[in-house]
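D-aspartate oxidase
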Amino acid sequence: MKVVIIGGGIIGLTTALQLKHELRNAEITIFASDFNNTVSHVAAGIFRVGSSYFGPTEEITRCWIRDSYEYYDDIRKSHEASFAGITAISGYLFANSSPETVKNHWIEDLVPLYRKATDEEFELVEGNWKYGSFFRTLLTECKLHLPWARNKLEISGIKLIEKKLNSLTELVSDWDLIINCTGLGARSLCNDKRLVSIRGQILKVNAPWLKTFFYGELDTYIIPGFNGIVTLGGSRSFDSENLKPCLYESTAIHNRCKNLLPNIKKAEIVKVEVGLRPHRENNVRVEGEQIVKGFSKAILVHNYGHGGYGVCTAPGTAKYAIKLAKEMHKSSISKL
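Tokens:
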């Protein structure tokens, strides 16, 4: 089977890795307009799925999240963990608005520990917080994970080609299976009006003493990564596509993080980054269809619209997309 995956971010690369594992004899190629400048590179990578994330049903969504956690945790337990940029991490979530804000119905029963914060733990941060939770989860550092994934793909014989597509139909005559992992690119390729960008801005600071993550409200977070680099966030600007860093936004982010954890003010700011989250209204799109051009036809499976949770759930949606592709392929053969 000849397979082409479109998209060079975390969704496309993870889909390719899993597809190679399940269809060992498939000839796989990845097309992407850019492999080195995707929104995945900006993500802090903590495994924490927000309540706004949703697939076609709650059962399928839970399956995606569980499969994703298990995928990353298996890598964490392996000798490749440090190369793949995956580690365990613990931290806190604080809020004043409501006790529901510090709960998480997607991951509370999945991660090793999720509990209420103690009175002593409220003293770790500034502010008169009413509610708090402590939990252990995973971190995927994309600056390490994406190059690791690309290297594994190339070693296994998968071709990674920089190519900009104008239409999915131009692929039909050359490929049996097309998997669309284009994120925001699906707006034009699929004419998907439900897809909008949610702009995010973060600061990277050098704070090697910090090993624990902290979340506050108003999209405030402090997340340690690898090599002493910590992500300070963040922002969510709906339907904005300005990739230029905003000085006022950086100042606001820095101030919120310093108010939450004062010792972060001594950390040197090393970088400001901006990314566009591919948010799809109603639900993430992972579904299949048959695509036809003239007398040629191919199976097309979509896997996009993950919003700010692409890193978290890429393995789960990839597994589901491959399942759909195999079912459609089997069905097409049985009709011959």
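The first strand starts at residue 2 and ends at 6.
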